[in-house]
């Protein structure tokens, strides 16, 4: 892989050619200096770093810190009046740009020498099912690659990132451009061929994936979500951001069962090829005959080239939709069908539809990540069909200071479909947990009085499990295997819901 470094002058030209430069100062003696690192975080700066200043939360102190640590030039939308000099006495260079997010994507692509072009890239967007589909792809690809004795595929998701060098819990669904291109670079360096990733609406809106072409782009579904002062200001903005994916993929895989399918299909024409999937015989990848038997969900798929029964051993009937997406993506990548079958049969996704039972007990406890209107409705409908005649207990909460409509939506849905409800902490942040719980309770009460507010999440889970009889499914939603709770402005380490469940079911 090419590992070429570029000089400050070359970075300047790159931005200049794109019409991004508003003003610049690069002293003559600095023009030929090679940039050896690129970052937007002062904590990571080392010698000869090109430092990107971005964001409403940026402070000039970070720039001062960066210069002390070895930054030789900063890129910013704002000019900072600093009297800082580099340790060797030369002046600090700067390039002021008119669009820092676009500039960041360009710089990242250039610094990492377009590593992504050596990968087969799969980009998945949608309101729900992105992580699951990305992991389904990883299972399928890894089956295929194992047979060829090649390295496992890479993944960039809201759960974990793996690129052959880094294996970490992720903090964003789609990382900022500089981190994203670093993952591409690491993957190529590790001889990895395929990378599956989630592409969030925020990523598309803020150009985190700008300039990258996906071999396959997948659109799963769209529902009202992420509409708030800090995310999208309207559904239209959210929807349009998601549709931008089609302008940067070679093949578009589209769920024809999604809401607004007509508009999605129209936008998908921006891609050279479209493959549709869904539970509708008009779909190119058509799924039907869905049957749950024991722990296995079977379904049949018809495409142009095969009719075949597939199996999922992961719970959640809605996962058939995600599996159809993965089948559509895999066929467009010419992955032989036996590997698709084997991958899907094995697939598990951390913190999504994890089913636990205690020794000598018949109660099912499911840890899942449902936390918005679409996933709550889907989860309840699916659970009712999958576990007919069982009562449903749910443990859930809502986050502080964002997505306020969830308190009403989730409260009403839970109230309508559950037999017992425990309302608890879920990333309350700067709002008191009890206030959020009481607000949710007002909406639960429209349908049932069978609820309790237990702000301590562990205690809520303990109560839900110990009070459940053998004829109950206990749903513990919203956090999956996350090990942090947002309290105040900080993320505090906590045990995951899975750990609590194992503790109170007395399993290892
Ligand atoms: C903290 C925060 O609210 N950040 C949001 C804000 O970013 P920002 O650039 O203005 O602010 P910032 O991230 O705090 O940046 C401050 C800068 O100072 C730097 N810094 C900070 C400390 C220090 O010591 N030194 C230093 O250099 C930081 O590295 C950073 O570059 O404004 C950006 C554009 O509006 C947002 O993308 C970004 O969202 C953060 C990253 C975030 O968590 N966003 C969520 C909503 C998000 O993106 N979610 C999607 C999933 C949702 C979906 O499906 O759409 C995702 O992809 O994860
Ligand atoms: N295709 C689907 N349609 C509706 N709900 C789904 C679908 N797939 C998964 N879900 C529900 O949404 C939850 C989150 O799934 P997943 O993590 O795969 O989605 P995501 O798009 O990555 O979500 P987020 O943006 O919240 O990280 C699951 O735990 C499940 O309850």
Automatic annotation (TrEMBL):
Enzyme Commission identifier(s)? 6.3.2.-
Per its database record, what is this protein's job? Catalyzes the addition of an amino acid to the nucleotide precursor UDP-N-acetylmuramoyl-L-alanyl-D-glutamate (UMAG) in the biosynthesis of bacterial cell-wall peptidoglycan.
Residues given in the record as ATP binding sites: 126-132
Q: Which family does it belong to?
A: Belongs to the MurCDEF family. MurE subfamily.
Q: Please name the source species.
A: Sinanaerobacter chloroacetimidivorans
Molecular-function GO terms, alphabetical: ATP binding; magnesium ion binding; tetrahydrofolylpolyglutamate synthase activity
Residues given in the record as UDP-N-acetyl-alpha-D-muramoyl-L-alanyl-D-glutamate binding sites: 42, 173-174, 200, 208
- Please state every residue range assigned to the domain named Mur ligase C-terminal: 351-480
Against Pfam families, the record matches this protein to: Mur_ligase_C (PF02875), Mur_ligase_M (PF08245)
Question: Which InterPro entries does the entry mention?
Answer: Folylpolyglutamate_synth_CS (IPR018109), Mur-like_cat_sf (IPR036565), Mur_ligase_C (IPR004101), Mur_ligase_C_dom_sf (IPR036615), Mur_ligase_cen (IPR013221), MurE/MurF_N (IPR035911), UDP-N-AcMur-Glu-dNH2Pim_ligase (IPR005761)
Which stretches make up the Mur ligase central domain? Answer: 124-329
Q: Which PANTHER family match?
A: MUR LIGASE FAMILY MEMBER (PTHR23135), UDP-N-ACETYLMURAMOYL-L-ALANYL-D-GLUTAMATE--2,6-DIAMINOPIMELATE LIGASE MURE HOMOLOG, CHLOROPLASTIC (PTHR23135:SF4)
Keywords (alphabetical) are: ATP-binding, Cell cycle, Cell division, Cell shape, Cell wall biogenesis/degradation, Cytoplasm, Ligase, Magnesium, Nucleotide-binding, Peptidoglycan synthesis
Q: State any GO BP term from the record.
A: cell division
Principal localization reads cytoplasm
> At what positions is N6-carboxylysine found?
242
Question: How is it modified post-translationally?
Answer: Carboxylation is probably crucial for Mg(2+) binding and, consequently, for the gamma-phosphate positioning of ATP.
What does the record give as its pathway? Cell wall biogenesis; peptidoglycan biosynthesis
The identity of this protein, by name, is: UDP-N-acetylmuramyl-tripeptide synthetase
One GO cellular component term: cytoplasm
Where does this one sit in the cell? Cytoplasm
The family database entries (NCBIfam families) matched by this protein are listed as:
murE (TIGR01085)
Keyword set includes Metal-binding: no
């Amino acid at each position: 892989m090419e590992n070429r470094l570029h000089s400050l002058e070359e970075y300047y030209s790159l931005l200049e050619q794109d019409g991004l430069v508003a003003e610049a100062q690069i002293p003559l003696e600095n023009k030929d200096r090679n940039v050896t690192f690129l970052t937007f975080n002062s904590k990571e700066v080392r010698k000869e770093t090109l430092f990107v200043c971005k964001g409403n939360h940026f402070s000039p102190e970070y720039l001062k810190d960066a210069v002390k640590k070895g930054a030789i030039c900063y890129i910013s939308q704002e000019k900072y009046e600093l009297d800082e000099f580099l340790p060797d006495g030369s002046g600090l260079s700067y390039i002021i740009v008119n669009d820092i997010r676009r500039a960041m994507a360009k710089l990242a692509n250039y610094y990492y020498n377009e590593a992504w072009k050596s990968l087969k890239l799969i980009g998945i967007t949608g309101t729900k099912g992105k992580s699951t589909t990305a992991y389904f792809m990883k299972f399928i690809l890894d089956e295929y690659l194992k047979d060829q004795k090649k390295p496992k595929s890479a993944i960039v998701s809201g759960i974990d990132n793996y690129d052959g060098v880094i294996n970490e819990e992720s903090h964003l669904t789609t990382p900022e451009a500089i981190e994203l291109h670093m993952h591409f670079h690491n993957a190529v360096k590790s001889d990895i061929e395929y990378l599956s990733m989630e592409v969030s609406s925020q990523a598309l809106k803020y150009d985190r994936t700008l300039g990258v072409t996906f071999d396959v782009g997948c659109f799963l579904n769209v529902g009202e979500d992420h509409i708030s002062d800090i995310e999208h200001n309207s559904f239209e903005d959210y929807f349009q951001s998601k549709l931008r994916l089609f302008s940067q993929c070679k093949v578009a895989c589209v769920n024809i069962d999604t809401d607004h399918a007509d508009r999605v299909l129209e936008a998908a024409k921006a891609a050279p090829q479209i493959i549709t999937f869904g539970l509708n015989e008009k779909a190119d990848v058509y799924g039907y005959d869905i049957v749950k038997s024991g722990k296995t969900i079977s379904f049949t798929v018809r495409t142009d080239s095969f009719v075949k029964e597939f199996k999922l051993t992961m719970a959640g009937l809605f996962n058939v939709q995600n599996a159809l997406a993965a089948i559509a993506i895999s066929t467009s990548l010419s992955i032989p069908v036996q590997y698709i079958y084997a991958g899907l049969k094995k697939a598990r996704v951390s913190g999504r539809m994890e089913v636990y039972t205690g020794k000598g007990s018949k109660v099912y406890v499911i840890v899942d990540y449902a936390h918005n209107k679409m996933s709550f409705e889907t989860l309840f409908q699916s659970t009712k069909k999958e576990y007919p005649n069982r009562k449903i207990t749910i443990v859930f909460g809502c986050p502080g200071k964002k997505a306020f409509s969830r308190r009403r939506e989730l409260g009403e849905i839970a109230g309508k479909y559950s037999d017992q409800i425990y309302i608890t902490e879920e990333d309350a942040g700067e709002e008191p947990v009890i206030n959020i719980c009481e607000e949710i309770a007002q909406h639960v009460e429209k349908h049932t009085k069978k609820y309790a507010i237990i702000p301590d999440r562990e205690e809520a889970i303990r109560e839900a499990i110990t009070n459940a009889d053998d004829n109950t499914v206990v749903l513990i939603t919203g956090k999956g295997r996350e090990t942090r709770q947002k309290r105040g402005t900080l993320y505090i380490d906590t045990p995951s819901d899975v750990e609590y469940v194992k503790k109170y079911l007395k399993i290892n």
